[in-house]
Design goal:
14-stranded antiparallel beta sheet; mainly beta; 14 strands; disordered N terminus; about 200 residues; about 5% helix; 1 helix
Length: about 200
Amino acid sequence: MVLLTLLFLSAPPAPAVATRPVGADVRRYGIEVAGIRVGTMTATRQAPVGPDQVYSLVSDVKVNFLFYHLKIYYQVTNHFRNGQLLLSTVEAHTNQGDFASKAEWKGDHYDIVADQYKHHYKATETQPIRYAVTNMFFGEPPAGQARAFAEYFGDYFALTKGQPGTYQAERDGREDEYHYTNGQLVTIIKKNPLKNFIIRLLP
């Protein structure tokens, strides 16, 4: 259970929002394990307000396989100003407890604290963060983009481009694959030694 939980949360995940915020770009995905739908994921990019733009990623997952049970409600909210991340918050509510991560710009550095299930991390980052996992839901990574801020971990995924439209995101032995068609994210494969999680764009 520990392995499956950590691998699922390595990327980006309240049920899908029923109404579309005015001017927002919303992408909805189904989450599958072994061909069975186990949850949903919704990525939202709010319409910019001046120099400010907010991204969110929410998902609701319930897995029941024999003796294996997993429940995760996961929400990320990222606030950018002039293309720089000012505040990232993560809330995770699981059958193992409630957890949170936060990265906040303090004028010349970020204070980063991740207090998640089997993952505890605290750091100071002086380089402005301009690209995060939430950005990956709204287009292919820009040319030369070598990493994406992983909000849950408070750390970075290394990004590598493979075949056209395919990217690997790796951190500490974990790997996710992002697949794009005509610039739109259509599939994420969250690799797992037991069963991969497949996240597919819904019609």
